[in-house]
Specification:
Length: 281
């Protein structure tokens, strides 16, 4: 079976044309930009999402995410399940009072599309950007900022101030290096188990003391209420003494009298004189 040489030649030419076409056209995906390099030198051209033309075999590109990228610090066993773009190990540091603590945090950022050419020229590709800036500086400040705080302040969950201070330190550094910082989040602070037990015991004792104070305050309030009530009753009795006369007592006796005279009277017993209360004829 003879092979048609023209067919082979035509097929070869078609393959070359296709290779040339695909090496010339660079499709940039949404959420990314590409900086064009020529023979390793940054040209200053930037490819945006969609088809772009470059010189084959001479030009190449460096890709940067303009979408949110996540750098996450977590334990080795959790790294496999993590969906972060870049993963690293926890930062170990000490608090102001010398307690050891491991910091687990996340940095969310993106490359500034306006500064990607500068990034390519001065730092490198995205991996270099993460390694030299995001990782290095975030770990420095995640280690230094907690040293300004007492361990108990951090353990009780008041990490918002620490988180904010880390962001304040990183934002100008990131901006200077072409990175848009979105957020720094401290996910977990892990203290020495012995310290955790000591803090929990202290908190339990504090709750007991507060409970005893509440009971004492309640007893004091009840005592004051009884005194106030007794004083009120005394004043009421005093007022009654001042307003109740002998005539009033006799009138109250008559109002409750059933009209029957006593059947037995002792010698010298005198009945109450009610003539003044009986209507005259």
């Amino acid at each position: 079976m003879r092979i048609n040489s023209k067919l082979i030649l035509g097929t070869g030419v078609l393959v070359l044309i296709l290779l040339f076409f695909f090496s010339t056209v660079r499709i940039v995906t949404p959420g990314t930009v590409q900086v064009v390099t020529r023979l390793g030198k940054v040209t200053g051209r930037v490819f945006y999402p969609g088809p772009n033309i470059l010189i084959p075999f001479v030009e190449n590109t460096l890709t940067y995410n303009t979408r949110k990228v996540i750098y996450e610090v977590t334990s080795a066993e959790k790294q496999q399940a993590s969906k972060a773009d870049y993963k690293d190990y926890p930062v170990d540091t000490n608090t102001k009072d010398g307690q050891q603590v491991d910091i687990y945090y996340t940095v969310r950022f993106s490359a500034d599309p306006v500064k990607v050419t500068w990034i390519a020229q001065n730092i490198g590709d995205e991996k270099a950007l993460v390694e030299k800036i995001v990782k290095t500086d975030s770990r420095i400040w995640a280690r230094n900022v907690p040293r300004e705080f007492e361990a108990e302040h951090l353990y009780t969950g008041n990490v918002q101030e620490v988180q904010q201070k880390i962001e304040e330190k990183l934002e100008p550094i990131f901006s200077e290096n072409g990175i848009l910082l979105d957020e720094v989040g401290i996910r977990e602070l892990k203290f020495n188990p012995q310290y955790v037990q000591a803090i929990e015991a202290k908190q339990i004792e504090a709750v007991k003391i507060q409970t005893e104070k509440n009971i004492a305050e309640q007893a004091k309030y009840q005592k004051e209420a009884r005194i106030t009530q007794a004083e009120g009753q005394a004043k009421e009795q005093e007022l009654q003494k001042q307003t109740i006369t002998e005539n009033l007592l006799q009138k109250m006796w008559i109002e409750k009298w059933d009209g029957k005279l006593p059947s037995v009277m002792g010698q010298g017993t005198t009945l109450m004189d009610i003539s003044q209360f009986v209507p005259k004829q």
